[in-house]
Amino acid sequence: MADTPPDAERTYDIVILGGGSGGYSCALRAAQLGLSVALVEKDKLGGTCLHRGCIPTKALLHAAEVADSARTGAKFGVNATLDSIDLATVHSYKDGVVGRLYKGLQGLVSSATIEYVEGHGQLTSPSTVQVGDRTLTGKNVVLATGSYARTIPGLEIGGRIMTSDQAMTLAELPERVVVLGGGVIGVEFASVFASFGAQVTVVEALPRLVAAEDEAVSKALERAFKKRKITAKTGVKFTGATQDETSVQVTLESGDTIEADLLLVAVGRGPVTDGLGFKEAGVSLDRGFVTTDERCRTAVEGLYAVGDIVPGLQLAHRGFAQGVFVAEQIAGLEPTPIDEAGIPRVTYCDPEIASVGLTEAQARDKHGEVSTYEYNLGGNGKSQILGTAGFVKLVRLPDGPVVGVHMVGARMGEQVGEAQLIYNWEALPDEVAQLIHAHPTQNEALGEAHLALAGKPLHAHA
Ligand code: NAI
């Protein structure tokens, strides 16, 4: 130990700025590979995903599912009534989940050989991060500062106008909600609020909800939302909102005004890169995002970026994978670059959406001719038991592999694991058709869809 210089002068193999999914995964993997690591976090280890994103919202969505089960119990012969939603208990359940995971993560990081540095970090050169009076020097620096909930110019967040950050900790349930933006966050919150009994209107500028998904999925979701009495106003421009003590008035370009108790702004997430010294260090930025090559390298030698600050899918598991990738890259393991299209995507509204690979339109653009098959969950026993509707849609190259899997229906998110193997292993429908899928599961729907594409549909109408 006598040889170890005091921390203030120490040079680490990696200094990581940001302790979210991208940053902490990089730290854990790097420590595992024997590299010395400093991990800088100004707020809480775990970042958006654990504290304000994936985990707490999915807890809300689960509570929403329980509410729906109570509400629809009689349909299954279980006579229950939904008395009320006790929001304080919903929050304590949600916070309990977050708290346990947070403790576990803190334990993981503290038991690894990682120096956890609490405080606001600033990049002061390509190889130094300043945290208070400490200068951390890294042979490599990884930028993993994440994203924030954006709003649109002129629409100030406050009071009844909020982003997912505030919506996560509401003290009272609104009766009427307008959701601005029909992307992933918009439809997930629309789903929660509707299950909790609110009247919900989603306002989306593009012609369809979840516009990044296959068009058939958007249509199915819009149908399902309509059945749930969620209003979707698509292809509609928002012009402004005003609020007072009793309500918020949302105006649209059509001239319509919608009155609500709450306006949730879900128009995308911006990168946290401003004022952190990135530009000054020579990092190239595109509308605030850090541009990298496929190996997560920025324009500056020894400086990497991972997660939501890098253009592309803003998903925790993408950031996580990039963090691991960079640690391995720095350790000289030459990891295989991540194929962005091969990253599974799940939206946890009801019904759930899960996809991997290319949409039909993207596949046609990229490959010209493609064929598709849509397997209706009407033919799937377990989906009938659950009382859900939806489908598995496959996109394949003529006589070639499956290049896109798109699924919609209750719980279909759980099927994305096999779907991503199929896509990433470039499986042929024949190969998947040979595999036996357990009965009765929703997983069979994936098997049946591939059987149909392989020319032997069994529980499907050709
Ligand atoms: P998003 O990009 O998914 O959707 C934003 C939507 O707002 C778009 O459809 C856009 O057309 C619309 N929009 C923008 N300006 C508008 C305007 N002025 N009027 C009406 N509509 C407007 O972004 P979102 O939903 O905020 O989510 C942010 C990120 O977080 C996404 O990248 C998403 O993938 C990620 N996320 C992922 C989750 C998951 O994987 N389950 C859950 C929640 C968020």
Automatic annotation (TrEMBL):
Question: Which Pfam family name is an example for this entry?
Answer: Pyr_redox_2
Under the heading InterPro entries, the entry gives: Class-I_Pyr_Nuc-Dis_Oxidored, FAD/NAD-bd_sf, FAD/NAD-binding_dom, FAD/NAD-linked_Rdtase_dimer_sf, Lipoamide_DH, Pyr_nuc-diS_OxRdtase, Pyr_nucl-diS_OxRdtase_dimer, Pyr_OxRdtase_I_AS
The residues that the entry says bind NAD(+) are: G181, G182, G183, V184, I185, G186, V187, E188, E204, G268
Instruction: Name the catalytic site residues.
Output: H439 (proton acceptor)
Q: Name one GO biological process term.
A: 2-oxoglutarate metabolic process
Q: Which residues form the Pyridine nucleotide-disulphide oxidoreductase dimerisation domain?
A: 343-449
Q: Which UniProt keywords apply?
A: Cytoplasm, Disulfide bond, FAD, Flavoprotein, NAD, Nucleotide-binding, Oxidoreductase, Redox-active center
Domain FAD/NAD(P)-binding: where? 12-323
**Which residues form each disulfide bond in the chain?**
C49-C54
**Known EC number(s)?**
1.8.1.4
Question: Per UniProt, where does FAD bind?
Answer: K58, G121, T145, G146, S147, D308
Note how many cofactor molecules are bound and how.
Binds 1 FAD per subunit.
State the needed cofactors, names only: FAD
Chief location:
cytoplasm
Report which reactions are catalysed by this protein.
N(6)-[(R)-dihydrolipoyl]-L-lysyl-[protein] + NAD(+) = N(6)-[(R)-lipoyl]-L-lysyl-[protein] + NADH + H(+)
Report the transmembrane regions from the record. none
Record-stated family: Belongs to the class-I pyridine nucleotide-disulfide oxidoreductase family.
PANTHER family, per the entry: DIHYDROLIPOYL DEHYDROGENASE, DISULFIDE OXIDOREDUCTASE
Protein name, as recorded? Dihydrolipoyl dehydrogenase
Q: Which gene encodes it?
A: lpdA
